[in-house]
Amino acid sequence: MLMIEYRDIGWWYWLVTAVLLTLGVLGHVEGFLAAIGLTLFQLVHFTLREGSIAAFPVQVRFWYLLLLLAALPGPMRLLYWVPTIGTWAQVIFGYCTMARLVSLFPWNREEPFSWKLVARTFFSRPVRGSVKQEFTALD
After folding, report:
1. Residue 44 lies in a domain
2. How far is CA 84 from CA 60, 97, 116, in A?
3. In this model, does residue 15 exceed pLDDT 50?
4. In this structure, what are the phi and psi dihedrals at residue 73, rounded to the nearest 5 degrees?
5. Rounded to an integer, what distance in angstroms lies between the CA atom of residue 44 and that of residue 20?
6. Alpha carbon of 120 to those of 14, 27, 63, 88: distances in Å?
7. What percent of the chain has pLDDT over 90?
8. Is 1 part of any domain?
9. Which of 22, 6, 1 is nearest to 87 (CA)?
10. Is the separation of the CB atoms in 21 and 31 below 8 Å?
């Protein structure tokens, strides 16, 4: 199922980021740098919008930024395929692997960690809005 959320500013950020990462994996290193810059801008924007650095959308962007920075050194650039594919999955299908991973952090969940929780987190259908809210509603 397609989840093109063209009325959401966050969706547009992710779309541009996906394009920039695609340019990067196609050999234009400046695409990676621009994606990092845009993600940093997003991080600031969502921090101001949410009013807290602890807000879930801010956490997702923070960890995403760290992934982009970790992949920046030359020998690590092959890792950029992971956020490139993942960001396109977010833009097209609404499936955000990073949000699902961040939802498993101890401060973002109320239920004990289990393999059942991991399976439900990663294998459930994409949802509109925050994946964290969706999993809380399932409990």
Report:
1. yes
2. 15, 12, 28
3. yes
4. -55, 140
5. 19
6. 24, 36, 21, 22
7. 86
8. no
9. 22
10. yes
Q: pLDDT for 58-80, tens place per residue?
A: 999 999 999 999 999 999 999 99
Residue 50 lies in a domain: yes
d(CA 20, CA 134): 29
**What is the tally of structural domains in the chain?**
1
* Sequence letter at residue 85: I
What is the b/e burial string over 56-86, where b = at least 16 CB atoms within 10 angstroms of the residue's CB? bbbbbbbebbebbeebbeeeeeeebeebbeb
Distance CA 41, CA 104 (A): 25
Q: For residue 60, is it within any domain?
A: yes
